[in-house]
Design goal:
The longest helix is centred in the N-terminal third of the chain and has 20 residues. The radius of gyration is 21 Å and the shape is globular. By secondary structure, the chain is α/β, with parallel strands linked by helices. The strands form four sheets. Strands 1, 2, 8, 9, 10, 11, 18 and 19 form an eight-stranded mixed sheet that branches. It is built from twelve helices and 19 strands. The protein folds into two domains: 139 residues, FAD/NAD(P)-binding domain (3-Layer(bba) Sandwich); 174 residues, D-Amino Acid Oxidase, Chain A, domain 2.
Length: 382
């Protein structure tokens, strides 16, 4: 790999690399740059990570990716584990449990297991699946089986990005500038609200705000915003599962499932008994944080500019579905709206804006999953 020229010791405004955006994609690139010995400056308009990187399930959904993104996801898994070892944040190799409540859903899992292998997708009986969900309640009696995906990882989305940022800003040759807005950038020069900085390479990792800096690029990829509704509740007494839990609606969302022959039958089933879940583009799933709370969700709405108002019926419907799966009532203590970039053309935009500037935006809901893998691939090209 080519090396960047080293900056002069007295050139305080120059680094090898500038990263715009301290979400998880930007931070993953900063972590990878530091590991490779580059000097790096991170510019972030907020005072801390506050966007999509903290408003998700904390689920690194490795196995349910497909095609080239599957390889990226596995590389990302390695990066997440390396970051967890260095930084010390919570990242159990807890995998994911996929619950099947119909023959068609079970068939999707069997087909994926046949394609990927029994080690990657471990089939579960109905009793084994229900046992993973054990609490004081009784899991849904319609559960007919499931699968365990051991490669999937968990992190706490409320703290992981902040922990990485705190660790990075204490490392040599790494600088983080918070509350710093970018006004202009071109050919390695970035003009900000806190001065002008220079680098041999600039990476723009601003997620759904790409259109603010490069509207023509965002328009070319038809990038819009996706708003989702999520909630949090204390886990039922006795529920200690660290694995993410996915359901039949997840099989309509992730390419690893949707490419299976039985996936169309799953969608038809859901349309027959719960069309409202498809109307809200639901991914009914939940994860447990280390403090014992459950993250519950989620719905999806798309648009260029999205209103902040949440429809209560959507959250109530999602929570009711999760209550049925685990067989326990949940008391919601928080609700929030997440927003991420979405494109009907691709799940990842990597485009050179000029000779020294590259825009990198995940245009689907898999930014947490792919972040460290995308960073590794970026440095393969440098």
């Amino acid at each position: 790999m080519n090396s960047f020229p080293s900056p002069e010791l007295n050139d305080r405004d120059r680094t090898d690399l500038i990263i715009i955006g301290a979400g998880i994609v930007g931070l993953a690139h900063a972590f990878e740059a530091h590991r490779k010995g580059y000097s790096v400056r991170v510019l972030e308009r907020d005072a801390r990570p506050n966007g999509a990187s903290i408003r998700n399930f904390g689920h690194c959904c490795i196995t349910a990716q497909d095609g080239a993104y599957l390889e990226t996801a596995y590389r990302s898994r390695e990066g997440w584990l390396a970051a967890a070892r260095s930084v010390g944040f919570w990242s159990p190799e807890a995998g994911a449990v996929v619950v099947a409540r119909s023959g068609a859903e079970l068939e999707v899992l069997e087909q994926l297991s046949a394609k990927r292998g029994a080690d990657a997708v471990q089939m579960l009986t109905a009793d084994q699946t229900a046992a993973r969900l054990t609490s004081t309640g009784r899991p849904d009696p319609t559960i007919c089986g499931g699968a365990f995906l051991p490669a999937d990882l968990r992190v706490d989305p409320r703290t992981a990005a902040g922990d990485i940022a705190d660790w990075l800003q204490n490392q040599e040759r790494v600088q983080l500038h918070w509350n710093t807005s970018v006004k202009d950038l071109h050919d390695g020069t970035v003009v900000t609200s806190r001065g002008t900085f220079h680098a041999d390479k600039v990476l723009v990792c601003v997620g759904h705000d790409l259109d603010y800096l490069f509207p023509d690029l965002a328009s070319r990829f038809q990038i819009q915003r996706c708003a989702l509704q999520m909630a949090m509740a204390p886990a039922p007494r006795g529920y200690t599962l660290d694995s993410a839990v996915l359901t039949g609606t997840s099989m309509t969302r992730y390419d690893g499932f949707t490419t299976m022959p039985a996936a169309a039958a799953v969608r038809e089933e859901i349309h027959g008994h719960s069309p409202e879940l498809l109307d809200m583009v639901a991914n009914v799933m939940f994860t447990r944080r280390p403090d014992g709370t459950l993250l519950l969700g989620d719905s999806h709405v798309y648009g260029q500019t999205l209103p902040p108002f949440q429809d209560e019926w959507m959250t109530a419907r999602l929570v009711r579905e999760i209550e049925q799966i685990i067989g326990s009532r949940l008391t919601v203590t928080q609700r929030w709206q997440g927003i991420y970039a979405s494109s009907p053309l691709t799940s990842l935009v990597v485009e050179d804006v000029d000779a020294r500037t590259t825009a990198i935006t995940v245009t689907s809901g898999i930014g947490m999953t792919l972040s460290f893998g995308i960073a590794a691939e970026t440095f393969d090209r440098l």
